[in-house]
């Protein structure tokens, strides 16, 4: 697995990051351990925790995390029941409480990468920045990434030269290319990198939803609304193009999706396999797209088209 720098910063990430959203839900502790071991053995270096109070935290607590695997831990939002409005927690007291709680739960003395998962315009930027500086100065946090931030919000935070910002996590795939126009200019100007969240289009780019909702899929379960946002005529055309390219090359649609991400603007793509078989397929995917195929995919998924 290749390692890439986040922009001009010193943070290095493998080109696949292991997401843990389903850990403690549809992924049990034995499977989670197997996934982590296989990922680390393949050279993976980034383990994403979806929230400071997510079920995954309890599973990770009982695991031995290889030293080369960095935790990318999200704070700033309290999880709610499906369909509920997330509770923002970006004030000084909340951030301090939640980071200390996370460190205690993980039995760690620091977080490799803290991901600030929200921008709350009711909280002065300086207030949240002050606690981030405190956490960095005391060695509790190495780098900071931003998620669910617009370009101007990211730029406002990154203007604080006392904080080790390394970039952003944003949804990015052939089905969601908004980051190219909304975030990329700011990231390039600031010398920061991008990690693609939902890089497989929430699973839609696999082609499995072209004929309905397969039993056992995310779209057929409690994530139906989340997946359903990407099931429309426009995205169906893109997925059909991906499937057509995969058929012509004798590969899987997932190979096309990952190959396109690798040659685009992201340093890493977050994947969230639920089984060892799924992970092995992702780890084995090393397709390099020919220019003409990449250009066609760019055209059919053009965010400005």
From TrEMBL:
Coiled-coil blocks: none
GO CC terms: cytosol
Recorded superkingdom: Bacteria
Domain NADP-dependent oxidoreductase: 16-289
Pfam family, one: Aldo_ket_red
InterPro entries given in the database record: AKR_Detox_Biosynth, NAD(P)_OxRdtase_dom_sf, NADP_OxRdtase_dom
Stated name of the protein: Predicted oxidoreductase
Organism: Brevibacterium jeotgali
Lineage: Bacteria, Bacillati, Actinomycetota, Actinomycetes, Micrococcales
């Amino acid at each position: 697995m290749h390692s890439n720098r986040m922009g001009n910063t010193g943070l290095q990430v493998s080109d696949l990051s292991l997401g843990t959203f389903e850990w403690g839900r549809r992924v049990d502790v034995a499977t989670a351990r197997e996934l982590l071991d296989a990922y680390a053995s393949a050279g993976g270096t980034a383990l994403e925790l979806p929230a400071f109070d997510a079920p995954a935290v309890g599973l990770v607590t009982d695991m031995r995390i290889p030293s080369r695997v960095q935790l990318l831990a999200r704070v700033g939002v309290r999880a709610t029941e499906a369909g509920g409005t997330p509770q923002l927690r970006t004030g000084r007291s909340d951030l301090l409480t939640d980071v200390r709680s996370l460190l205690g739960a993980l039995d760690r003395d620091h977080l490799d990468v803290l991901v600030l998962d929200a921008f709350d315009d009711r909280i002065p930027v300086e207030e949240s920045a002050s606690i981030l500086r405190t956490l960095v100065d005391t060695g509790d946090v190495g780098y900071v990434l931003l998620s669910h931030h617009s370009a101007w919000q990211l730029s406002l935070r990154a203007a604080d030269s006392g904080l080790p910002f390394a970039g952003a996590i944003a949804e990015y795939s052939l089905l969601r290319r908004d980051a190219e126009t909304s975030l990329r200019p700011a990231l390039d100007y600031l010398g920061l990198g991008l990690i693609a969240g939902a890089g497989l289009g929430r699973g839609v780019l696999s082609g499995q939803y072209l004929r309905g909702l397969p039993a056992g899929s995310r779209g057929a379960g409690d994530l139906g609304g989340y997946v359903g946002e990407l099931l429309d005529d426009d995205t169906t055309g893109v997925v059909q193009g991906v499937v057509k390219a995969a058929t012509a090359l004798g590969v899987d649609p997932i190979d096309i999706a990952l190959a396109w991400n690798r040659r685009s603007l992201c340093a890493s793509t977050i994947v969230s396999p639920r089984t060892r078989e799924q992970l092995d397929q992702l780890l084995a995917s090393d397709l390099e797209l020919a220019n003409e195929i990449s250009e066609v995919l760019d055209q059919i998924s053009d965010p400005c088209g």
